[in-house]
Here is the input.
Amino acid sequence: MTIWTAIANYLTANWLEVAGTIITVLGIWLTTRRLLICWPIVLAADLIYLVVFYRAKLFSDALLQIFFVAFTLYGWWHWWRGVRQDGSVRVVPLSVRGWIAGLAAGAVGAVLLGWLMVRIGAALPHLDAALTSYSLVASWWQARKHTANWWLWIAVNLVYIGEYLYKNLVATAVLYLLLVVLAVMGLVDWQRAARTIQTPA
Here is the structure.
């Protein structure tokens, strides 16, 4: 079997995962640039990965995609409203209280979702539940335009890489490596935007 045959066979067997990978990278890159068009692209990626994770029995991740759809629609509306008011997507600082509340909510969600996932036979129930819970926190912060979302995405996505390699979701593991890079880019860009807003003209 040639390398090209192996690649063709992989793409044929995993075309949906590969499509989700490409669309997700595009959507997150557009998010790092604070462009409103990111949201419909991210929405398409959410729906694709809902199917991918369900097939892999990563039920917490599949459930996460449903919440992602809701957050994506909210973020789309919230950013659109901000663009209408300010002319651009403006970064909003996150208070210490916001950090504490978000991390505490993630911990509570991890415990409750982990309990549920054990009972329905999900793969890696506690780890997947914790990653799902904190991904929801990061998504909320992102929809609210808090730069802190990128710090949390970096931490969560690094752990996700190991989980997906363990589950033999190679394309998704590569995707999450790229997402870590994109999250760093987003952090730098959003911090620069925040400084620009805070600096008097």
